[in-house]
Amino acid sequence: MESVNLGEQLRTASPATGLRAVGALHRLAEHVEATHVAQARRDGWSWEQIGDALGVTRQSVHLKYGKQGNNV
Amino acid sequence: MFEKLAQSAKTVVEDARHEAARRGDRRLGTDHLLLALLHEEELAQAVGVDSATAADAANQLDRDALTAIGLDLGAFSPTAHAAASKRVPLTAGAKATLQHTLVNAAAEKARTVTSRHILLALLDRREPDSAAALLTALDVDRAAVRESLAVPL
């Protein structure tokens, strides 16, 4: 990798690029979350355990991913 | 605002809602409206880009932005769709676009507000609007598209 560090790159990116990157990170997190919540459920994790791992309540993770046959 | 839309326009907004949820976005933005509009063959032809190509371009914009802040995703590519959210509110830009759509349709004395009117309103968006950024990335000639949409389809 190049010697330019992340802090330097963060400061030099334009707002349009930097804010786009934030959106991209959020989208990425949603996709990774969906993949691994589904995997955790298949592996027998409870909604409580998944909620604790994500730092959210059991209710919010269940509301988002519960009874969703289409979610894999 | 929605009552005044014809079925084709309502379908676009619903479709855009699905695009937003599928992409993992919390709000329905103008980029999602554009992706939804490009599902319609006549509109995709007028723009010269189909929805899949536009979605790829949006993903590339994401990767480029991440690279610019020093994050290289490498070969990583998400496999799952994001969880479908029940409520996907409109961004301020998407609201303004739909309002602009109604104004345009009224000026045209159109009896119904169609997806074509939404596309015309989207063409007027300026960067940093997300649809405008996507149109620029796709190298779309807005004047040419406007011309081909001038006669109602």
User: What integer value in Å does the Rg of chain B equal?
Assistant: 16 Å
Overall average residue pLDDT of chain A: 87
**Portion in helices of chain A:** over 70%
**SS content category of chain A:** mainly alpha
Distance between the termini of chain A: 34 Å
- Helical content class of chain B: 55-70%
What is the averaged pLDDT score of chain B?
Answer: 92
What general form of chain B does the structure show? Answer: globular
The multimeric state of the shown protein is heterodimer
Structural class of chain B: mainly alpha
The CA-CA distance between the termini of chain B, in Å, is: 23 Å
The most extensive interface between chains reads: A-B, 34 and 26 residues
In DSSP terms (H or I, runs of 4 or more residues), the helix count of chain A works out at: 4
What proportion of the residues of chain A form beta strands (DSSP E)? under 5%
- Following the backbone from N to C, one meets helices and strands of chain B in this order, namely HHHHHHHH
Annotation, overall tally of beta strands of chain B: 0
What does this molecule look like?
The complex is a heterodimer of chains A (72) and B (153). Chain A is mainly alpha-helical and 72 residues long. In chain A, 71% of the residues lie in helices and 0% in strands. Chain A contains four helices and no strands. In chain A, helix 3 packs across helix 4 (58-65). The model of chain A has no long low-confidence stretch (mean pLDDT 87). With 153 residues, chain B is mainly α. Chain A binds chain B through residues 4-6, 9-10, 13, 15-21, 23-35, 37-38, 64-65, 68, 70-72, and chain B through 23-26, 61-66, 68-71, 73, 78-85, 127-128, 133.
